[in-house]
Design brief:
Length: 373
């Protein structure tokens, strides 16, 4: 922990097998929260405060080698994706983070997601994309500290990162970034990004677009962490006129982007009330599939009507997200839907004056709420 006291054990597997986890940690406890604990933060905190920023790398070996080569403000999450809890802890020491990621698809997706988290927490972030197959450990041992320092100096701002990744579709990059900025509560960070974007469009237009996105962001509930945040506008016509709950959005987004868990989600929500008609029909199609094969995004789309396909195509979440976080999001959303359904039954029982049913329903709700603790 921050005082240098042991709170858990962690390890990095030496096997190249993909059937076992890359990192292993002690189970969570009252003194060990994986989503908040940072490896080597106790050793790095004074150097982070002095430098004014944190270098975030992927794993234990990367941290060890960075410290050996003099980059003493380096930390890592514990073999998982960076979370809001990590960032809040780091922000207490310095409000800037320098993020290192692999330049593969998973690394790019993780960078996008972490930039969004940083903006939501009011932190300034920059990104360094390492060559595929390279990490700080191997880079430093091959090329040395001076080369790594020069490499870090070329870190991209969020604006540069999104525009570079968008390539010729620069407007798509702008829109992606504006959507992320709409969750940022720090007006100075937003203004910096807008000024950097202003050479592509007038600042007035950008601010108007940003204001529109902010108005459309859902405010319902907090069943899930900000790690997964698909967005559906409530101003759509036709089937979209029925508001989609935050929980339905998140479950659909996970099912579409991580199809191997789609059937599991559909089975677990069977019997729960899904308010949005298209969402309900999509999950029914997934449940009804008896092909026996593994689900893919293509097979889900093939089983849907054009209207349902149009809805699904609007979801885009981080495909490289840590699976522990995904399962926690699923559990949280399903629990929230179940509680909402029990609440409706409680109102009906109260209106009918059915005290026996009311007591049973309150006990059921209490049990569901205790599971979330």
């Amino acid at each position: 922990d921050l005082r240098g006291k042991p709170v858990a054990f962690g390890g990095r597997t030496l096997s190249s097998s993909k059937s076992i986890p890359k990192y292993l940690n002690s189970p969570e406890s009252t003194i060990f929260k994986k989503s908040e604990s940072c490896y080597a933060l106790n050793a790095a905190k004074a150097h982070i405060a002095k430098k004014g920023y944190t270098i975030v790398v992927e794993g234990y070996f990367d941290v060890i080698v960075c410290h050996q080569f003099g980059f003493l403000n380096t930390i890592a999450p514990l073999g998982t994706a960076l979370t809001s809890g990590h960032l809040r802890k780091l922000k207490k020491i310095a409000d800037k983070v320098l993020l290192t990621f692999d330049a593969d698809a998973a690394g790019i997706a993780a960078a996008r997601r972490t930039i969004e988290l940083a903006y939501a927490e009011g932190m300034l972030s920059k990104v360094v994309m390492l060559s595929e197959g390279e990490d700080p450990d191997t880079f430093l041992r091959k090329y040395g500290a001076d080369s790594f320092r020069k490499f870090l100096a070329k870190a991209l701002s969020p604006v540069q990162f999104f525009l570079l990744r968008a390539g010729k579709n620069r407007i798509d990059g702008v829109r992606q970034l504006l959507n992320i900025l709409s969750s940022c509560r720090d007006s100075l960070l937003r203004d910096d990004a807008l000024r950097e974007l202003a050479d592509l469009a007038s600042e007035k237009v950008l601010r108007a677009e940003l204001a529109g996105l902010a108005r459309r962001r859902p405010t319902a509930g907090h069943a899930a962490s900000p790690d997964i945040q698909p967005r559906i506008s409530e101003n759509d016509k036709g089937p979209f006129a029925v508001p989609m709950s935050r929980e339905e959005e998140i479950l659909l987004g996970i099912a579409f982007n991580i199809p191997r868990v789609a059937r599991r989600i559909a089975e677990r929500i069977n019997g729960l009330e899904i308010e949005h008609p298209l969402a309900g029909r999509i999950f029914e199609s997934i449940r009804a599939d008896d092909s026996g094969g593994d689900f893919t995004t293509g097979t889900i789309m093939a089983s849907c009507s054009p209207e349902e396909q149009a809805l699904l195509s609007r979801f885009s979440i981080d495909p490289g997200i840590d699976m522990d976080e995904v399962m926690r999001n699923i559990d949280g959303c399903i629990r929230k839907l179940a509680v909402r359904q029990v609440d409706k039954k409680i109102i009906a029982a109260r209106n009918a004056g059915d005290e026996k049913t009311l007591r049973l329903l309150h006990a059921e709700k209490k049990g569901l709420m205790q599971k979330s603790c």
